[in-house]
Amino acid sequence: MEKNEKNKKEEDNKEELTIEDIPGVGEATAEKLRENNYTDIMAIAVASPSDLADLTGIGEGAAAKIIAAARKIAEVGNFETGDQIYQRRKDVHKLKSGSENLDTLLGGGLETQAITEFFGEFGSGKTQIMHQLAVMATMPEDRGGFNSDVIIIDTENTFRPERIIQMAKAKDLDSDQVLARIRVARAYNSHHQILLGDKAGEIAKEHPAKLLIVDSLTSHFRAEYMGRGSLSERQQLLNRHMHDLLRFGTLHNAVIAVTNQVSARPDVFFGDPMAPIGGNIVGHTATFRIYLRKGKAGKRIARLIDSPYLPEGEAVIQVSEDGVSDGT
Ligand code: ADP
Ligand code: MG
Description:
- The chain is about 45% helix and about 20% strand.
- It is an alpha/beta fold.
- It has 2 domains: about 1-75, Orthogonal Bundle (DNA polymerase, domain 1), CATH 1.10.150; about 90-325, Rossmann fold (3-Layer(aba) Sandwich), CATH 3.40.50.
- The longest helix is centred in the C-terminal third of the chain and has 21 residues, at about 230-250.
- It is globular, with a radius of gyration of 20 Å.
- The two termini are about 40 Å apart.
- The model is unreliable at about 5-15 and about 265-270 (pLDDT under 50).
- Adenosine-5'-diphosphate binds near residues 120, 123, 125, 298 and 319.
């Protein structure tokens, strides 16, 4: 816990820094950088000198200096020893999902300090699972919950308190109390969504939340950045957003649960007609990816993909009026 507090303070200090704090970045350069989506120090730290020079019109030598300075501030290359990482891993908690099958697939539940992505077609149950997770997080620890508040970023206007009430009742919880612990913000576009991701950190200072949900992670990005031309800009913004989310997860030892639709438009997106939106950026930043598809009679099949240390596998879950469960 002490360690988290310390991290939090260090991160808070870093949070106050803007790109103008990089030596060599004046007002005019800062403006050009922002126009080109280099909005934070980390984005500049990982940029290439020639890209930065092209975009801003400053010389490549000056760009290299700015990048070097940004790296210093961002502490890129700050390696941790295995035992430090192991120590942090010991703080990882697991949130039960409502379905034991799904929990088993995930090695005991959804992990804190990581992003778990549920992707699948429209109607595959992603939003139902998000509602269920919100209810679960408010439950006491001895029932697999976090006894915690929840923050939801709702981009598709699909949050339904009525559904929370049904699910809470099915768990014999006081539904008013559950609703009072869930804070929902609508995101009207991708920029708004990014801002809300930032804002979540502030809200959590007052109302600690160990579950942050973004449903859906990608729909605004997909709608706003159509076609190949704007792909790199979209990926850059998505990358930044996901790293904000991941940082929230680390700082607050929280579960980050996000949803993603599969694209059936191979002409616009990546080769596979059933590929999740967001390509490599989302794929590499999400620690756990679960592909949902419809089965018979309200059943859903959840498949774990690309986990760093869990075997691939499938779990059958059920979506009913009572929420998400194994069904029987
Ligand atoms: P998406 O993956 O698009 O977010 P949803 O999570 O919204 O999909 O899933 C919608 C499906 O969930 C519905 O088609 C229905 O099968 C199921 N569902 C939603 N509400 C209920 C309910 N009250 N009782 C039973 N099933 C429900
Ligand atoms: Mg949905």
